[in-house]
# Entry
Amino acid sequence: MNIFKKLIALVVITIALVSCQFTETLVLNEDGTGTMAISMDLSEMMAFSGEMAQDSTFVKQDTVVSFKDLLEQKKDSIAQLPMAEQKRLKAMENYKMRMVTDPETNKMVIDIFTDFKNISEANDLMKGFEQSQNVIPGASSSTEDEEKKDEPDVIGVSYSYVKGKFKRDAFIKDKAAHKTQVDSLKNAEAFMTGITYKVKYTFPRKIKKSSVEDATFSLDGKTLELQRSFVEYIKNPDILDIEVELEK
# Structure
């Protein structure tokens, strides 16, 4: 597990210093089931960090980790946490994390993904990456854990799919905390201009119409892609709101 601890710790420390890309991917089936994932391409960060590239434990790999297994391994220590924290970790039970690394090509991609029976289960997927720090031993310090206990959720995302109509609605959950977060970005904003957030949604039928004018579509008309600045998304989550109507 050494490599996972190093990866998460490095991501948390340096994510604001170099260019990277978040990609939110959805594959939706006709019956409302599907798969949702958050992918973080941190290859530029790996190239930037000479220490990581020279670490002998940082090897070429393509590994999938089940959060259910990790939660089982740590069940005794988790039982000592406040009930609210236990519930947050329990919600991660069906998530998995895939890590692809290759020191020779400076490749590092982290995926947090889950299957769902109803799209509403995929709400707040970004919390999956944040909670991953709590189930991977050594990924966060005890001091950081204490600070996070009272840290409010700032941005939420709600998904719905009813009768051929899909909707992604991002919203601010805590206005005071959001203002603090935006204010704290000011000093680091110049270093974060290269960070992007892209959504890529694949539907079971061809898209009839979309609420987003600058989205791009696949040749078969079933996949929509939209990219925004990550900083601008944090400032105004509505810029990634999407409504799609599918052909009958």
Summary: The first strand starts at residue 21 and ends at 28.
